[in-house]
Design brief:
It catalyses: L-threonylcarbamoyladenylate + adenosine(37) in tRNA = N(6)-L-threonylcarbamoyladenosine(37) in tRNA + AMP + H(+). Pfam families: TsaD (PF00814). Belongs to the KAE1 / TsaD family. Its cofactor is Fe(2+). One of its GO terms (molecular function) is tRNA N(6)-L-threonylcarbamoyladenine synthase activity. It is built from 9 helices and 10 strands. Helix 3 crosses helix 9, helix 4 packs parallel to helix 6 and helix 7 packs parallel to helix 8. The strands form 2 sheets. Strands 3-2-1-4-5 form a 5-stranded mixed sheet, sandwiched between helices. Strands 8-7-6-9-10 form a 5-stranded mixed sheet, with helices on both faces. Strand 9, helix 8 and strand 10 form a beta-alpha-beta unit. The protein is α/β, with parallel strands linked by helices. The two termini are about 25 Å apart. Bound molecules: adenosine-5'-triphosphate (ATP) and fe (iii) ion (FE).
Amino acid sequence: ITILGIESSCDDTSASVIRDGVLLSNIIAGQAVHQSYGGVVPELASRAHQQNIIPVVAEAIKRAGIDKSELSAVAFTRGPGLMGSLLVGTSFAKGFSASLGIPMIEINHLQAHVLAHFIKETPDDTDQPTYPFLCLLVSGGNSQIIKVNAYNDMEVIGQTIDDAAGEAFDKCAKVMGLGYPGGPVVNRLANEGNPKAFEFNKPHIQGYDYSFSGLKTSFLYTLRDRLKEDPDFIENNKADLCASLQSTVIDILMTKLRKAAKDLNIKEVAVAGGVSANTGLRDAFHDHAARYGWKIHIPKFAFTTDNAAMVAITGYYKYMDKDFCAMDAAPFSRVVL
Ligand code: ATP
Ligand code: FE
């Protein structure tokens, strides 16, 4: 079974080929056009997807070393994401599947982030999670604790009531003038800073839900107050600010995850989504593995932010269940799992 995966939900155009669960190729074209705007501009994103989609798919098929006639199905991200961006991938998938006479498989982007853990890089790669496991899904648009019972059975047991973790990184980075997306820059600077230099607010909410808007406000107020005394405050404290911000986000994330793991008595814990690239968060997972006996799953960097390999692997599982979709499948911008 050979699946072509297509991902175009936000600002990365990606295509991947997976054969029997094993990765053959994963091509990702980013979009530099958004950098000067401090965020993704939807109209520019869909235009860039239109330019990129054909060469990216062609490259993925070429690198996989296959002919397109060998494809069993086309899996595409149907949502959630930006409508204009999703339309490009969805329309391409329809045309491609119709011309080859192969089925189409719709993919939920968040489910795909979680299932990235099942991508095999070699046929004997056996490092996949076993069900049920907990997955902390932390990305630009979501922060959720998910109980994964099966590839197609996921329960969201906690989620953010306001901003996502990635958004907290990006927004705080933006006010420090660190560009977009700021998450990776904060991570890099944090490595040279003192995580205890500053204290920011942590939310007090019940259950497994998250909140990051209070942290963002408290970060902003710290900058505002300190800048009054010292106009060079940000410049002189960048590393410490980033280290303190990062450690606060990680602490918030891990506290609830720990609680969920304990209450549900699950020791198999994974992390997924763009923020799972964060080295401090990865360290915290290793620390929890050592301290609480967790069996942890941390994705390779290439499978953390948006990529089509996670779409193709999800497509592979759906293919085996003959879970195909009709030609009139329309993209959706918002949903829960
Ligand atoms: P969603 O998947 O919720 O629709 P998205 O697709 O935009 O959102 P991803 O591509 O999964 O999100 O992740 C992007 C986010 O990951 C951005 O907010 C970015 O700042 C963050 N990020 C990437 N690398 C790091 C890092 N090393 N440290 C912290 N954050 C990071
Ligand atoms: Fe994503």
